[in-house]
């Protein structure tokens, strides 16, 4: 494991108590999923989908709106394909709607179970404390949120967010079954995080989700906005292997074995071909560190895991 920069001196943000009733049951466990529309807006995404006058067209999937910053040109990459920037979110949605039901078992198969060690390392780096507020962005099936729910305790609060309703439904079912009553579930686009107010969370995490975001700079800016002063961001993501012979072996595995596994287990080879391609198109360790610094984060560092196949990036809002 190699590190970039020294580990900063960490101060624990003051805990925010939102409810002193340890038996509080979240309304999000029984009511429909809230949608990532800006605060104060009453029109739902479902209405937007059924009323052509709203968007001019009915999208295949109803997704919370992304940013419109001008950071991304008219075209962008979807794996190795070049697509219209406005179409990428829909294409990513197709991938994750397709794989949602097999997502966890495929993670175990593809990584030989090592993804659990990567996630445990990220959780250990998080410094999460009792009573804190945590936002798990693109949290999917809830691996991290489940642990954070236990760590923050009944006086703490966890939000599991994802842009993809199929993934979020899987996560909600898992966490309800696990008795996690201090977790809310919110459809949100990482580029805007519009449902969330400024300075709301002590800890933000995004695990294997940033590479799928169209406007990564907008997403990092949104993360900085909703993080409390003194809080931290952790990004767990596939990255660039640091040892060239290992990198070639990794490429061979990614572009041959992964699509075959996807076909056999999830009946979907194309989604796992995209997975391999999206990893190669994601910024390398130093580039992502610089993007975090440009978004305002301080004391940024990264830790390579499994030879750089995965890296954990960390930054602080001071």
TrEMBL record:
InterPro entries: SAM-dependent_MTases_sf, UbiE/COQ5_MeTrFase, UbiE/COQ5_MeTrFase_CS. The gene is ubiE. Its EC number is 2.1.1.163, 2.1.1.201. Keywords: Menaquinone biosynthesis, Methyltransferase, S-adenosyl-L-methionine, Transferase, Ubiquinone, Ubiquinone biosynthesis. Pathway: Cofactor biosynthesis; ubiquinone biosynthesis; Quinol/quinone metabolism; menaquinone biosynthesis; menaquinol from 1,4-dihydroxy-2-naphthoate: step 2/2. S-adenosyl-L-methionine binds at residues 141, 162, 189-190, 207. This is Ubiquinone/menaquinone biosynthesis C-methyltransferase UbiE. One of its GO terms (molecular function) is 2-methoxy-6-polyprenyl-1,4-benzoquinol methyltransferase activity. Belongs to the class I-like SAM-binding methyltransferase superfamily. MenG/UbiE family. One of its GO terms (biological process) is methylation. It catalyses: a 2-methoxy-6-(all-trans-polyprenyl)benzene-1,4-diol + S-adenosyl-L-methionine = a 5-methoxy-2-methyl-3-(all-trans-polyprenyl)benzene-1,4-diol + S-adenosyl-L-homocysteine + H(+); a 2-demethylmenaquinol + S-adenosyl-L-methionine = a menaquinol + S-adenosyl-L-homocysteine + H(+). The keyword Chaperone does not apply. It holds the Pfam family Ubie_methyltran. Residues 17-28 have a biased composition (Polar residues). PANTHER family: 2-METHOXY-6-POLYPRENYL-1,4-BENZOQUINOL METHYLASE, MITOCHONDRIAL, METHYLTRANSFERASE. It comes from the Bacteria. It comes from Acinetobacter gerneri DSM 14967 = CIP 107464 = MTCC 9824. Residues 1-69 are annotated as: Disordered. Methyltransferase required for the conversion of demethylmenaquinol (DMKH2) to menaquinol (MKH2) and the conversion of 2-polyprenyl-6-methoxy-1,4-benzoquinol (DDMQH2) to 2-polyprenyl-3-methyl-6-methoxy-1,4-benzoquinol (DMQH2).
């Amino acid at each position: 494991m190699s590190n970039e920069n020294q580990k900063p001196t960490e101060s624990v943000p003051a805990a925010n108590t939102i409810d002193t009733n340890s038996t509080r049951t979240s309304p999000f466990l029984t009511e429909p999923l809230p949608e990532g529309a800006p605060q104060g807006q009453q029109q739902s995404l479902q209405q937007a989908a059924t009323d052509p006058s709203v968007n001019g067209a009915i999208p295949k999937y109803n997704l919370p709106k992304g940013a419109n910053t001008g950071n991304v040109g008219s075209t962008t990459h979807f794996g190795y394909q070049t697509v219209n920037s406005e179409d990428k979110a829909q294409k990513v949605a197709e991938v994750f709607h397709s794989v949602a039901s097999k997502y966890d078992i495929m993670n175990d198969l593809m990584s030989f179970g090592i993804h659990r060690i990567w996630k445990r390392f990220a959780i250990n780096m998080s410094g999460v404390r009792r009573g804190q507020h945590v936002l798990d962005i693109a949290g999917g099936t809830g691996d991290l949120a489940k642990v954070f729910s236990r760590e923050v305790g009944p006086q703490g609060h966890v939000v599991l967010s994802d842009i993809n309703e199929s993934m979020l439904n899987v996560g909600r079912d898992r966490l309800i079954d696990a008795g996690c009553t201090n977790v809310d579930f919110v459809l949100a686009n990482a580029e805007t995080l519009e449902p969330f107010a400024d300075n709301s969370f002590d800890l933000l995490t995004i695990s294997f989700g940033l590479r799928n975001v169209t406007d990564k700079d907008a997403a990092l800016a949104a993360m900085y906005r909703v993080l409390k002063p003194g809080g931290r961001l952790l990004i767990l993501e596939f990255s660039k292997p640091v040892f060239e012979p290992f990198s070639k072996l990794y490429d061979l595995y990614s572009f041959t074995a992964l699509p075959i596994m996807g076909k056999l287990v999830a009946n979907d080879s194309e989604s796992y071909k995209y997975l391999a391609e999206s990893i190669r198109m994601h910024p390398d360790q130093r580039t992502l560190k610089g993007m975090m610094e440009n978004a305002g984060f301080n004391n940024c560092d990264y830790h390579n895991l499994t030879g750089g196949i995965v890296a954990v990036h960390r930054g602080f809002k001071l």
